[in-house]
Design brief:
CATH architecture: 2-Layer Sandwich
Order of helices and strands: EEEEEHEH
CATH class: Alpha Beta
Structural class: alpha+beta
Number of helices: 2
Radius of gyration: 13 Å
Largest sheet: 2 strands, antiparallel
Bound molecules: iron/sulfur cluster
Strand order of the largest sheet: 1-6
Strand content: 15-25%
Distance between the termini: 21 Å
Shape: globular
Length: about 120
């Protein structure tokens, strides 16, 4: 399953540069599929066409947030989720509302990183 950040976040910025998928954003910032990935132009996400370069609305305003669609639990890059490892207040937790198998997570990682 993807990870999410809960409201205990102290906005320290430690996690953002660690995410290999560019899936972590500062509260209030817009996000893009193309940030930190090889995605560009029109892509298919859950049978819907999306412009990878188009800015998307922030998923949280007051603290950092994770884009579930881009989070792979670090599968394909690291053995453990990097955000969990570096967060000083343990506020990166698995999201029971976004469950994915290891196979799906790896396929997601390979789709985002064509040259990985
Ligand atoms: S688990 Fe890995 S891929 Fe997901 S948000 Fe954390 S650092 Fe990024
Ligand atoms: S490392 Fe933890 S406390 Fe710091 S910005 Fe990320 S989620 Fe928030």
């Amino acid at each position: 399953m993807a990870y999410k950040i809960i409201e205990d976040c102290i906005n320290c910025d430690a996690c953002l540069p660690e995410c290999p998928n560019g899936a972590i954003y500062k509260g209030g910032d817009e996000w893009r599929f193309s940030d930190g990935t090889d995605l560009k132009g029109m892509i298919e996400v859950q049978s819907v066409s999306v412009d990878a370069d188009a800015p998307q609305s922030a998923k949280a305003d007051d603290y950092y947030y994770i884009v579930s669609e881009k989070c792979t639990e670090c599968v394909g890059f690291f053995d453990e989720p990097r955000c969990v490892s570096v967060c000083p207040v343990d506020c990166c937790i698995s999201d029971p509302d976004f469950v994915e198998t290891p196979e799906v997570l790896l396929a997601k990682q390979q789709t985002m990183h064509l040259n990985a």
